[in-house]
Amino acid sequence: MAVTIRELSKRCGLSISTVSKALNGYTDISETTREAVTLAAKEIGYYPNAHARALKTKRSYNLGVLFVDDNQSGLTHAFFSFVLESFKKEAERHGYDITFISHNMGESSMTYLEHCHYREVDGVCIACINFLEPEISQLVNSELPIVTIDHIFNNRMGIQSNNVDGIQQLVEYVYTQGHRKIAYVHGPKSSVTDSRLGSFYRTLAGYQVPVPENYVLECEYNDPPSVYRATRQLMALPNRPTCILISDDYAALGAYEAAADAGLQIPDDISIAGYDGIPMMQLMKPRLTTVRQDTGRIGAEAARCLVSLIESPKTTIPEITVIPCRLIEGETIAEPPGTK
Fold this sequence. Notes:
- By secondary structure, the protein is of the alpha/beta class.
- Helices cover 40% and strands 16% of the residues.
- The chain contains twelve helices and 14 strands.
- It starts with a helix and ends in a 12-residue tail after the last strand.
- The mean pLDDT is 89.
């Protein structure tokens, strides 16, 4: 039989009203009291009734997550799975569950906004999607609290990795290793791609290093086959690059395969670098040189900001949070052939 709030109140020696306020985050309850009530609830196995709490607070304590990439990778996405995991942990720490938003509910089809209303989410985190879709604009312009990851909308909270600085760190490192023929296989057009590509050109311009037009190719994010094709195309050039920067770590698997099929050794014959810093690629041989994005901070900050928008809408100011990233010196960058 479920433990009641009356039993918890008796255990704590506090009124039911005080216990309820402590469990629901009221600001007129001291932190000491809140901790004591929370501990007692765990000890006797008390869990607030979700329906009763929703009626009292007019919130569902449910956060929507809209995450749809071109490959439909979902929770298997090599980078965003880590972001979503940290988002989930932080949301749960604040007492919220998460629901994935989609077009489908059984055999019915609905817009993203309709699904949000159907699930009665208190707010939505949007990540890894085509932000230019009309349905996204409809959702962003709705009354729901919104936090975006890696895209900026006017008057909406946004969490961004410092993509400009990340590429700058990578290009500067490659330059110091002696490379002057540097290619870039980037992702499809997006705010992230634009920031990284602009930083790539600007950093090399600062070193007065030219970038031939055929050194810059587009591929799909998180898609090794498209990077394989792009890498083979670059390696077939008469004046081929000595170093290739890849859109993301997982896609860099295509570059490893392309080099092997061409009979080239990384980094002795060709240098490559990725972006993201996913753990899997640090197990590759040779270990991938990359830029590590702080997935833990990105996800947790998105959850904290969304909860703040929901619980303190009058005092939370929509702003952009930029998360630093750092270079990981792996084993896939070496001096260009013939320079030793």
